[in-house]
Specification:
- It is a single chain.
- This protein is mainly α.
- It folds into two domains: about 80 residues; about 80 residues, no CATH class.
- Helices cover about 70% and strands about 0% of the residues.
- It contains five helices and no strands.
- Helix 1 runs antiparallel to helix 2.
- The protein starts with a helix and ends in a 6-residue tail after the last helix.
């Protein structure tokens, strides 16, 4: 099977996943309380920004699907590959442990730093030396955690778990 065939199929499935995810965000944002009784305007309602992001995610998912569809039309039919591969399963497991088990049970900044560092360490390019991979992973985890914590707590005034 050609590399292009794998990319086209992966773009189709990945795009479909992003469309579903984006639409789920939109549905969740529409269901959020609008605080109309308190005189909230459209742009100050809690679901406004997530809804816009959800629309953008769905739109970009459609673009990815269109790209995959165009590539697939240029290629001959090839045998299908499994929908879930190792990287997707590892990502799903890490995310579920992070969001389902660790958030709320330990400080947010620590859990986020560990999640990002682990993710980067597992998915960094294979040709990186182990010491460099560890350094990059720890730096990415610490910096991401610090920026996210500061932005949410100081700019958006959101208390993190």
């Amino acid at each position: 099977m050609s590399e292009g065939g794998k990319t086209a199929r992966s773009d189709l499935w990945g795009g479909a996943g992003w469309v579903v995810f984006g639409l789920a965000i939109v549905v969740g944002s529409v269901r959020m309380d609008r605080f109309e009784s308190m005189g909230a305007q459209l742009y100050t309602m809690p679901g406004f920004v997530p809804g816009m992001i959800g629309c953008l995610v769905a739109l970009l998912g459609l673009v990815l699907m269109a790209r995959g569809w165009a590539r697939r039309a240029q290629e001959s039919a090839a045998p299908s590959e499994p929908l879930l591969n190792r990287r997707i399963l590892v990502t799903l497991a890490l995310t579920l442990v992070y969001a389902g088990l660790l958030i709320g049970r330990a400080p947010f900044w620590l859990v986020t730093a560990l999640f990002v560092a682990t993710f980067v360490a597992l998915f960094a390019p294979a040709n990186l030396a182990p010491a460099r991979r560890a350094t990059v992973a720890v730096l990415a985890g610490v910096l991401t955690s610090a920026v996210v914590t500061l932005v949410f707590e100081q700019v958006f005034l959101v208390r993190l778990p």
